[in-house]
Amino acid sequence: MSSYEHLTESARELACSSDDMRLAAIQRDGFYIDHPQSNSILKMVENVLAVPRRMQAPCMIVTGAPGAGKSSIIQQIRNSEALSNQIVFLDMVANPFNLKFGELLVSALGLPHGLIKFGHPRKATLPAELAEVIRLRKIKALIIDELHESMLVARPEQLKNLSILKSLSNNTYGLSIIGFGINLAKNALSMDEQFSRRFYSVQIDDWRESESFRSFLAGVEQNLPLRRPSNLDGAEVIGFLLENTGGRMDSIMNSIKSAACYAVKSGEERITIGSLVKAISTPWSY
After folding, report:
1. According to the model, what pLDDT value does residue 119 have?
2. C-alpha–C-alpha distance, residues 177 and 165, integer Å
3. Theoretical Cys-Cys bridge with 214: which of 45, 74, 233, 274, CB 3.0 to 4.6 Å?
4. Which residues pair with 144 in a beta bridge?
5. Are the C-beta atoms of residues 7 and 228 closer than 8 Å to each other?
6. Using one digit for the tens of pLDDT, what is the confidence trace for 203-216?
């Protein structure tokens, strides 16, 4: 039996499994490979959480095009027990009951919806009890996925939402606001110039030909349970991927995953330009 030396130890074990088990492993949501951009953002979040209590908590806004990898970074933060136990996570898209922003926030904290009262059209009154909950649970940050969604509302509602965020980052509550979204999120924050100056802005760029990209692809290959090396970090594959995906993270990963499934089903056991062509034209026909 081959030792599959081109793979990590866990991928070697999977490579000995059935085709169905390997297909499931390839297509799992949790498939993630470290890379410089994500590691830099994770380090920033770690450092923001380590800042002592201040009059104005440090805040971050992470922007990128849809599919650039923002949600994967949030998932890595969730997976880190050291970070996640200090954070409340709020996904603006996961809102089946059409709750307002303040209601989503108190729900994420496990509190009744009605705790945040909306009075003045541009203000939201935050209860003192909220500060006590934050203190007792030792919460230091609020991470908001798809932050721009909180701003895709009528202007009075936008101002209320900004008021909530601004209040939460002040001394009473002391939360660092870490928003993820498209560029519209950054534009929305600029409605309150004073508040927007608290945010350090990070842009997630699409991949381009670089040593970092080659290293990333080599890491992806090491974690795919294919029984033969694919040379994903070779010039031919890199050129093909960049030309056909524009360097967008989710397009690259979806193409590689589908091509890996074609490789398993065909018995070829390695990703080729041919399997990548199939993956892009008919991704689910393996």
Report:
1. 52
2. 7
3. 233
4. 90, 179
5. no
6. 999 999 999 999 99
User: How confident is the model at residue 62, as a pLDDT?
Assistant: 96
HEC string of the chain?
CCCCCCCCHHHHHHHCCCHHHHHHHHCCCCCCCCCHHHHHHHHHHHHHHHCCCCCECCEEEEECCCCCCHHHHHHHHHHCHHHHCCEEEEECCCCCCCCCHHHHHHHHCCCCHHHCEECCCCCEECCHHHHHHHHHCCCCEEEEECHHHHHCCCHHHHHHHHHHHHHHCECCCCCEEEEEECHHHHHHHCCCHHHHCCEEEEECCCCCCCHHHHHHHHHHHHCCCCCCCCCCCCHHHHHHHHHHHCCCHHHHHHHHHHHHHHHHHHCCCCCCHHHHHHHHHCCCCC
Q: Which tokens go with 277?
A: 């062509």
Give the strand pairing for 59-63 and 176-181.
parallel
- Report d(CA 52, CA 197) in Å as an integer: 19
Q: Give the CA distances from residue 118 to residues 124, 160, 163, in Å, rounded to whole numbers and listed in that order.
A: 5, 8, 11
The pTM score is 0.87
For the chain, give the number of residues.
286
Residue 180 has which token pair? 């993820």
Q: What's the average pLDDT block by block, 10 residues per block, for the chain (286 residues)?
A: 84 95 91 87 96 92 94 93 93 76 81 64 65 90 90 80 89 93 83 86 95 96 97 97 97 97 97 98 96
In 196-232, which positions are buried (b, 16+ CB within 10 angstroms) versus exposed (e)? bebbeebebebbeeeeebbebbebbbbbbbbbeebbb
- State how far the Cα of 129 lies from the Cα of 115, in Å rounded to an integer: 9
Report the alpha-carbon distance of residue 52 to residue 35 in Å, rounded.
Answer: 29
For tokens 């029984």, the residue is 227
Closest alpha carbon to 88 in 10, 135, 137, 141? 141
